[in-house]
Amino acid sequence: MKQLELLYEGKSKLIYATDSAERVVVRFKDDATAFYNIKRAKIENKGKMNCTISSQILAFLNANGVDTHFVEQVDQTSQLCKVVEHMPFEVIVRNIIAGSMARRLGIEEGVIPENTIFDLCLKDEELGDPLINDHHAVALGIATYEELVKIYEISARVNKLLTELYASVGIRLVDFKIEFGRATDGALVLADELTPDTCRIWDAETGERMDKDRFRRDLGRVGETYQEVAHRICNALNK
């Protein structure tokens, strides 16, 4: 399949048209950003590692009954994906309190709630990606109640699969964010990467952070830690 013109450039990925109206190429960049682009850097081989991690995990989800936009990995930094109409909000799934929720509610990081927490955030940087609820989403015309029910069901399924996968390689899945979209056939699909940029993951034995917080909080060893995550996930899924 032939890669054509650049359609979109985001903070961490480039999206290219192809000679198929139903496929795009998603290329991962080495750029690292935080705090709405205030903090920026390039991490050597980050694009390669995130492409590998996300490709492995999305293929795993596809094989376990979760429909995603992922088709195949085409080279070290690129994926072939389905064309989707992205829904302009993120679903954040929280198993352990950390990050913005801890700060917002004054809860110590590391507290484990009795329930899994699902947040919706409108994707609008000018507004600071505000939290919204189901009724807001429907009023804004960005989802129906029926779609939201399915989105929460898929998110819970993804959480179960990922929690078990990460646990099998000695990692605790703290939280993660995902986006959804409508494919050209109208199907609702998970349409996002799943990498240390979009998850909080902690080493189960040491508690060491193995995600983008290493960059946000100047903890160092960002590239080395992403490489360790890639190594563990690839070993688990390619036995």
What amount of the residues lies in strands?
Answer: 25-35%
| Residues in helix, % | 25-40%
State the low-pLDDT regions, or none.
none
**SS-derived structural category:** alpha+beta
Helix count? 6
Describe the sheet with the most strands.
Answer: 6 strands, antiparallel
Measured distance between first and last alpha carbons: 29 Å
Q: Encode the helix/strand succession as letters.
A: EEEEEHEEEHEEHHEEEHH
What average pLDDT do the residues reach?
96
Radius of gyration: 17 Å
Would you count the extended β strands for me? 13
The backbone outline, from C-alpha atoms, is globular
Characteristic terms for this protein:
239 residues, alpha+beta, six-stranded antiparallel β-sheet, five-stranded antiparallel β-sheet, 13 strands
Description of the molecule:
By secondary structure, the protein is of the alpha+beta class. The protein has helices at 46-63, 99-105, 134-139, 145-168, 213-216, 222-237, and strands at 3-9, 13-18, 23-28, 31-34, 39-42, 70-75, 78-82, 84-94, 117-122, 131-132, 171-183, 188-190, 199-203. Strands 8, 9, 10, 11, 12 and 13 form a six-stranded antiparallel sheet that branches. It has a five-stranded antiparallel sheet with strand order 1-2-3-7-6, covered by helices on one side. Strands 4-5 form a two-stranded antiparallel sheet. The longest helix is centred in the middle third of the chain and has 24 residues, at 145-168. It is globular, with a radius of gyration of 17 Å. It starts with a strand and ends with a helix.
